[in-house]
Amino acid sequence: MADIPSYVFEYAPKIWLHSEDPYRPSDIHTFVQRTRPQINFALLEGVPQPLDLNNLDALNGFGLDEGRDIYLTSVDDIAQDPEWIKGATPDASGVIDGQITGAVVFHDRGGGMTDAFYFYFWAEHMAIRFRNGQPDSLWYSQHATGQAFTYRAAEKEGKRPIGYCSNGSHAIYATTGRHDHTIPNFNLPFGPLLDYCDRGILWDPLPSSYRYVYDGGQFRPADGTTHPTAYLRFNGRWGDKQYRDSDPRQRKVLGIGPTAKYGGGPTGPRNKQLDRRNICPDNVSPCWVRPFLTP
Asked: Which of 2, 8, 29 has its CA nearest to residue 228?
């Protein structure tokens, strides 16, 4: 019997990338190769060399909080748009060949309830809660929070739900158009913190994703694969620390923190509350599973 049931793949989401977004899905291996661990903008000494997906969790032994204050910082100035940071564009069939741009993580909660998490590298993810093999509800992650919808309400291509990746920020939404995320867990089509989505390029993340089972707080490769797991256990941040206001590269609207052009790198899958009670992460309360589409 397979570690991951076939329905996890049958219902795997597809993602519309924004037509004008220059930053496409990125290869996880390339990212690690082009970064160095820093704490408070200072290079971390004495770490394993070279760092890769098989030893990245060794960084949890550094810093003041089991690696949580470590940022995987670009060796290039990201304000200059190095080529590697632009990622790869899907082909005509929606697939990215030769790169690993995501991960599927399956969690069996027992009693016929299972969760599938679909991580996309950049930062965000979608999740589907299944009941006895049937999709029940979905989570679309957006910055520090997100939105939940019933499966029935979601836009779909056949069985597969559709997500919309916002231009530049890469938050995942259930609808195209504008999304203001000023108010946590409540989006509007207008406001000061707008994300923009459209039907640019349809991406199928599944063929370029590693596959794992999550059980007892641990990750293991699924279905006889030898996919690396150490990087999933890394406690730190995937990207640069938010640049100081004094950094000439930094920009803020009216000096407001959440509008910073260069925010801090996100946490990885280990910190996404994979053992959540509801389809929403446990820090989202109440968990409103919307029965209709909203911005």
From this structure: 29
Rg over CA atoms, the chain: 19
Which structure tokens are listed for 163?
A: 């997500």
Tell how strand 156-157 and strand 102-110 pair up: unpaired
pLDDT digits (tens, 9 = 90+) for 114-158: 999 999 997 899 999 999 999 999 999 999 899 999 999 999 999
pLDDT at residue 2, as a whole number: 84
Residue 176 contacts residue 197 (beta carbons within 8 Å): yes
CA dihedral sign of residues 72, 76, 79, 81:
negative
Q: The pTM is what?
A: 0.96
List pLDDT tens digits, range 47-87: 999 999 999 999 999 999 999 999 999 999 999 999 999 99
Going by C-alpha positions, the residue among 179, 156, 157 that lies closest to residue 167 is: 179
Q: Strands 145-150 and 134-142, how do they pair? A: antiparallel
Q: Buried b / exposed e across 24-50, counting CB within 10 Å, b at 16+?
A: bbbbbebbbebbebbbeeeebeebeee
Grouping H, G, I as helix, E, B as strand and the rest as coil, residue 214 is: strand
CA angle 143–148–150, rounded 5-degree value: 155
Tokens of 156: 């779909």
Which residues touch 290 (CB under 8 Å, ≥6 apart)?
A: 147, 148, 149, 150, 153
